[in-house]
Each structure stands twice: as C-alpha cells, then as structure tokens.
Write a structure and sequence with these properties.
The complex is a heterodimer of chains A (305) and B (347). Chain A has 305 residues and is mostly helical. Chain A has 13 helices and no strands. Chain A has a domain of 213 residues: MetI-like fold, CATH 1.10.3720.10. Chain A starts with a helix and ends in a 7-residue tail after the last helix. The model of chain A has no long low-confidence stretch (mean pLDDT 86). Chain B has 347 residues and is α/β, with parallel strands linked by helices. In chain B, 35% of the residues lie in helices and 22% in strands. Chain B starts with a helix and ends with a helix. The chains are: A mainly alpha (305), B alpha/beta (347). Chains A and B meet through helix 9 and helix 10 of A and helix 3 of B. Bound molecules: adenosine-5'-triphosphate and magnesium ion.
Chain lengths: 305, 347
C-alpha cells in the first residue's frame, strides 16, 4: 500500500509538469503578456520596464524555466491588483472553498445515493419516474440559474436565507444546495444504474436466503457493492464541482478561490489566475488519488501492490 | 395389499417435514406468463434426500425458490398451492416478515454457482456469522467462533485464517463449502440444494457431494437436491421426482427408477446417461429428439407428446394426471404422469 502510494505520487509528477506548462502558456497565448497584464493606456516606457523586470525580453524557453522553477515552489509572482503574492491570496481563500466543497459533496451524497437506491429498488414505479424526472431537470438546469432563482425565492421573497456572504450555517445553505443540485442528479443516476445491476446478482439472493431483512439486503449487501463504481464517477466529476464553485461563489459572494478567480480574470490579474488554475489542477489530481485509494479500501478484489 | 404390509410402509418412511401441494409458480413478463412451476406436489420425509431431476429450464430452480418465497421479483409469484413446513405452516401464505424468519433458519439453500453466490466485499467468516446473527442474539465474538467451527465442519483447512479471507481468495470448491457452512449455520430442518456441484470441477464435485451426504446424515436435515445429473441422484437420494416442463412426470424410489423407468421421458433421460462402467465399449449418447415446449405456450394434452415415441391420440387431447401405478399405494408409492400407465391401472 505504501509503495503503491509512493508510485502514484511519482506518477503525478508528469501531470504536475503538464499543469505548469499549461499555466505558463495561458499568459503567452495572446502573444505579449504585457498587453494582458498592463492596462491598455500604459506608456511605452512602462511596458519596457515591465518587460525587463519580468524577464519578458528573454528567450521563451528561458522564461519558461524561470516560471516553472518558481511555480513549483508555489511562487506565481505578485498579484497586480493587490500587490501581494498571488499564491498567498489563493491559500487565504482556500478554507472557504473547501468548506463549500465539503458541504456540497456531503449534501449530494446524502440526497443522491438514497434517491438512486429508492429509484432502483422501485424501478418502473411512480416513485422511480418522479425521481428520474427531477434528476433529469437537475442535470439540465445550469447552476447559475438555480442560484439566482434560489436568491429570488428564499432570500428576496421569503426572506428565509441571506443572499450571500460566509460565516453562518444559513449562509452556506443556498450556495451548497445550488452547487449540489447537478451533482445529486449525477450521483442518483449512477447509483440507480449500479443498484439495478447489483440487485440482480446471486449474492443478493443468497443474503435473502440467509434470512437477512430486506432493508439490510438493500442498504448493506447491495449498496456496499454499488457504491464502488459510484465513487469513481464522483472522482471523475470533481472537475464539474470545481467549475461550479467559480460560478456559485460569485453569485453568492462566497469569499473563496472561485470568486477570486473571476475577480482576477476581470481585473486581468494574471498571476492570480495562474495560481488558481494551478491549485485547482493539483486539487483535481489529489482528489483522484484519494478516490483510487478509497476504491482499493472498498473493493477487496483490487490489491495495490 | 395386506394391512401388515401397509403398516410396514408407514413405519419405514418418517412423516414429511416439507410437503409441497399443487404448487404453481408463474413468471409474469409483460403479456406472457411463463408457467415455470405448474402444479408440483411432493413430500420430503424428515432426514431423507429427495432429488428433483430434469432438463435445463424445466422449472427446478423456480420450485426451490418458490418454497422460500424468493421468486424473481416483480415477475414471479405463487399463484396456487401450498408449501407445508413441519412446525411452521404454509410458507406460501406467510408474509415476507415471517418468511424471513424461516429462511436460513428452518429452511436453507445452497445455490449453483459459488463464484457469484458470495458477496465479494465481505469476509467469508462474516458472511457465515451473519447467517447466525440474523436469527439469534449472540455476540460478534461468539458468532465468529461458530463460523470458524462451521468452516472446520465443511472441511476447510486452517479455518481461523480462512475465516478472514474474501471470497475471491478461495477456489470454487472452497466457496461452495462456505455456502454449505452458511446453509448449515442454524441446523435447518430442510436444506434446498440447487445443482450444488454443477459449476465445479469433476474431482471437486465428488468431494462436495460426499461432504453434503455426510453432513446431511450427521445433522439429520432433510435434503431437496436439484440436479440434472442422474449419477448424482443415484449417489445421494432415496427418492426422485422427474420434472418436465413445469410438472412432475414420474416419482419413485431411486432404485425402482433406475431398474424400471416408466415414463418415456425418464427412459430417454436414462438412455442419455453416460455409462460409468469403463469395461464396456463407450456407447454413443442417445439424446431425446426435439425440444421442451416453451413454458409460456404449453400444448394441450401431455407436455411430452411432441417428443414421445409412444404418443397416441389421447396424449394430444388431455393432460394425464400424476397417479400411483397399479396396486402401489401409501407414501412409498410410484407415480407416473402418462396415459400408457393410467390405462393399464384402469384395466
Ligand atoms: N428471471 C427470469 N425471467 C424470465 N424467465 C425466467 C427467469 N428465470 C427463469 N425463467 C424461465 O423459467 C423457466 C424455469 O426456469 P428454472 O430456472 O426453474 O429452470 P431449471 O430447471 O432450474 O433449469 P437449469 O437446469 O437451467 O437451472 C425457464 O423456462 C426459464 O426460461
Ligand atoms: Mg436451475
């Protein structure tokens, strides 16, 4: 297990290198980064000074080596807007985003898995049809629309919940629900199809033949098997969650990394954008590593030697 | 028949522990109704082995599943008939809660494929212990201790180590032994075994059959052994029911069946059996021509008529009843479902 972990960590190095290349290219795509990073009305002298300070007058490969070396140390330069290290700004906002992501994932699992199980167990019934209809909607409606709708209904009309900000549980409800909606739909759909398959298996019949009561057959014997593929899908769709974070945090003024990213893009604060992209990419890689390890823990047939 | 003889027959066979009466189990698939079990009756005496034999698809598994109320859902249901279990009542009329208390307790079941019948994510010791803990309140340690004992009983080497193995770490034969341990966990009155050795290697088959026979004799459980292999019947059972297209076509003591098969289908089955003697030249296997009629569109008259060499007009008109052959009454009676034999009795 430890050696597998080590090997997996070593294998993430090329991925990490790829991430660095992409973040580097991000600012070079449109030619001269000076145009991106300085206001359009900057003087030619200012542009020259910026170029030499940031080494933009050097050959591209040399620029990359310098950038990569710093990036791997977490140094993406200073934010143009805040005049603080870009990575520091991201790390500051990371707890808020992690809080939102965990709340969302917990909510999505707590709702999505039972919905999928019930839907599969009562396949073809009215319950199944209604669950599937709601899930279809959940996958089709974009989260920004749900977010705005949620604010209008629960914050403006009913005044039950605040429109945004972070600190209280009440402030977490709307953003987490909005963000969880698509994920619930996805988890329920995958859980349903996995459960349909597992409920047909011989070992489920064996459990019943032993006198195991029905709820235990479904929620322990069957779900314990069906959850394994569901977990993989959750890992693969983690990117979906990160994308949603950017939109949702902005709508609800949630002081997290996603909102920082949008602000940085509008402000052409490229060092911050690069730091966010890098952090999100690393998070995606780490989450998938954790999912792989969980997979091995849940499925005894997989041995990571 | 003298009264004395009649009495001796009564003494020889114990009262039935399981008595199936006119059982109908149908599968409703859209507009079609598959009459998988279509009026099956038999008695299983306490401590005895009764075998159900027949070709693939004749309803053997559905009979066993119907007894335990485990027909595939939502398609399957018992439409008619009774399943009397000694000391419990008619299983066909119990609700799921009451049936749960019977399953794995008074009546247990061993399935055909040990590779898929154990849950892959739980340790085998845990799966055996669960069978105990579903029916009595014991500590986890006590349940585990008994699981290890059961593993030892079914002949698994180093049981206290294998107890913590996952199913995929065991061979097919070992897994079937684990299934047998699960079935024995609560010392059931009746064990249903649905082709318990079909999925195993030939050498392992013999071992597992011997084990089942020994355990059945030691525990005193009655065994309903489903198979399509007459060799298994000869080795294991005292009585045998030959099943064809959802009904029993012949029932008799095993010796009588081999010595003098009455139903043309039984004769066909016996003729298609490979001869165990290696002295004689290997005969080409004779197989019964034709195929089983689909259980959703059964013919009027005898179900075997389409494949029978002795068919005559009456066979196509009405289905023959399963009746005792001439002069033979009582619980040891031979029964056959064939107009040839009904005629001879009436004569
Ligand atoms: N889940 C199911 N859905 C639809 N039809 C089924 C199902 N299971 C069994 N059947 C049908 O019911 C009939 C009886 O099946 P059953 O499994 O009892 O046969 P069997 O005698 O056990 O055969 P085998 O030797 O192949 O196990 C068959 O004709 C089969 O096609
Ligand atoms: Mg079968």
């Amino acid at each position: 297990m430890a050696s597998y972990l080590l090997r997996r960590l070593v294998l993430t190095l090329p991925v990490l290198a790829g991430i660095v290349v992409i973040t580097f290219l991000l600012t070079r795509l449109s030619g001269d980064p000076t145009d991106l990073m300085l206001p359009p009305n900057a003087t030619d002298e200012a542009r020259e000074a910026f170029r030499s300070v940031n080494g933009l007058d050097r050959p591209l490969w040399e620029q990359f080596v310098v950038f990569a070396g710093r990036a791997l140390m977490g140094d993406f330069g200073a934010s143009l807007r805040f005049q603080q290290p870009a990575m520091g700004l991201v790390v500051e906002r990371l707890p808020a985003t992690i809080e939102l992501a965990f709340a969302t994932m917990a909510l999505a699992l707590v709702v999505g898995i039972p919905a999928g199980v019930v839907s599969a167990y009562h396949r073809g019934s009215a319950t199944d049809t209604s669950i599937r209809t709601v899930m279809l909607l959940g996958q089709a409606v974009p989260s920004f629309f749900l977010g705005v709708l949620g604010i209008i209904v629960f914050a403006v009309w009913l005044r039950w919940l605040p429109t945004g900000g972070r600190g209280s549980l009440a402030q977490l409800v709307l953003p987490a629900t909005t963000l969880a909606f698509n994920l619930v739909a996805l988890i329920a759909r995958v859980t349903r199809s996995c459960m349909l398959d597992v409920l047909k298996q011989d070992y489920v019949r064996t459990a019943r033949a032993k006198g195991v009561w029905e709820a235990r057959v479904v929620w322990l014997h069957a779900l314990r098997n069906a959850f394994i593929p569901v977990l993989t899908v959750i890992g693969l769709q983690f990117g979906l969650l990160l994308g949603g974070v950017v939109v949702t945090e902005t709508i609800f003024s949630w002081p997290g990394v996603g909102r920082l990213a949008i602000q940085a893009i509008y402000a052409r604060d490229f060092p911050v954008v690069q730091a966010v992209v890098f952090v999100f990419a690393v998070a995606f890689v780490l989450v998938n590593l954790v999912v792989d390890l969980l997979y091995a823990a849940l499925d005894p047939r997989i041995s990571y030697k | 028949m003298t009264p004395a003889l009649d009495a001796s027959v009564q003494v020889r066979s114990a009262p039935p522990v399981l008595s199936v009466r006119n059982l109908h189990a149908h599968l409703h698939l859209g507009d079609t109704v598959v009459r998988a079990v279509d009026g099956v009756s038999f008695d299983l005496p306490a401590g005895a082995t009764l075998s159900i034999v027949g070709e693939s698809g004749c309803g053997k598994s559905m009979t066993a599943l119907a007894i335990l109320g485990l027909l595939p859902q939502p398609a399957g249901r018992i439409t008619e008939g009774e399943v009397w279990l000694d000391g419990v009542g008619d299983l066909a009329r119990l609700d799921q809660r009451a049936l749960r208390r019977v399953r794995g307790n008074a009546v247990s079941m061993v399935f055909q494929d040990p590779m898929t019948s154990l849950n892959p994510v739980f340790r085998v010791g845990w799966q055996i212990a669960e069978a105990i803990r579903m029916h009595e309140t014991v500590s986890r340690e006590e349940a585990r201790r008994r699981a290890i004992e059961l593993l030892e009983l079914v002949g698994i080497p180093s049981p206290s180590v294998r107890c913590d193995a996952f199913p995929h770490q065991l061979s097919g034969g070992m897994r079937q032994r684990v299934m047998i341990a699960i079935a024995l966990a609560r010392r059931p009155k009746v064990m249903l075994a649905d082709e318990p050795t079909t999925a195993l290697d030939v050498t392992i088959q013999a071992q597992v059959l011997r084990l089942m026979k020994r355990l059945q004799q030691d525990s005193g459980a009655a065994l309903l052994l489903i198979t399509h292999d007459l060799g298994v019947v000869a080795q294991m059972a005292q009585r045998v029911c030959v099943m064809y297209a959802g009904v029993i076509v012949e029932e008799s003591a095993v010796g009588d069946l081999f010595a003098d098969p009455l139903h043309p289908y039984t004769r066909g089955l016996l003729a298609s059996m490979p001869k165990p003697r290696h002295g004689a030249a290997r005969q080409a296997l004779i197989s019964i021509p034709g195929t089983v009629p689909p259980l959703s569109r059964l013919p009027a008259g005898c179900r075997f008529a389409g494949r029978c060499a002795h068919v005559f007009s009456k066979c196509r008109e009405a289905e023959p009843p399963l009746v005792p052959v001439a002069g033979d009454l009582g619980p040891g009676a031979r029964k056959v479902r064939c107009w040839l034999h009904v005629g001879s009795e009436a004569a």
